[in-house]
Amino acid sequence: MRIGEIAALVGLTPRAVRHYHRVGLLAEPGRRPNGYRSYSVRDAVVLARIRRLTELGLGLGEVREVVAGDAGRPLGDVLRELDADLARQEEEIRGRRLRLAGLLEGAPATVETASPALAALLAAGPVTGSATAARDRELLALLDTADGGSGDIYAALRPLADDPAVLGLYEELDALVAAPADDPRVAPLARRLAAFVPAEVLAAIAHEGPAVAGFGEALLADCPPAQAEVVRRVMVALTVRMGGGAG
Fold this sequence. Notes:
Blueprint: H1 3-10, H2 14-22, E1 30-31, E2 37-38, H3 41-55, H4 60-67, H5 75-86, H6 94-104, H7 116-124, H8 131-147, H9 152-161, H10 165-174, H11 186-196, H12 199-208, H13 215-221, H14 225-241
Antiparallel strand pairs: 1-2
Helix pairs in contact: 1-3, 3-8, 5-6, 7-9, 9-12, 11-14
């Protein structure tokens, strides 16, 4: 993705993204042969996290410490200090304090900046160590930031959180992490995944409108070859189901 595309996806301006580069919040990405920056889905995930943390009221210095990882201050310490300050304010910060309360109870990293609707969906999902599931949670948090936390898609996804078949599908995707794109498991898994997506989810996606230009390409580039091929086939199949043609 180019800078304008990633900025539109996360709901910021290109100027803000450049500022985050200058102050050291967001690492500079690689560049294309023409000199333009080329952002990955991972960059978008980090940028979405920065936006959500600043919306919680953290200053850029505090955000830098949080996103620094193990070398930075614990997120709980920073949020406790922020909560003490917010407690001196009234109605205008009530929503922030409710969200901070969830963080101080030890919410997972992918939930820490999510809207209440997404946090509820993720909390209802099964506990799994799947790397693919963790990536999906990050993508949901990214899209949550991009569209402002619309609840239609989360409501449509809620039945999947209770379906035990979800864990099996994630295990099959994890098993493809080192496989080539032409692995024979790719095509049947893609068909089952596409069929697994309820019509209600497709309707909610259609209601949200088209994705930001460049996002699909960046998403595929973020996956190992076999997993990327599964995702590509699923995207094509879902486009057909939504009436978008054979792709």
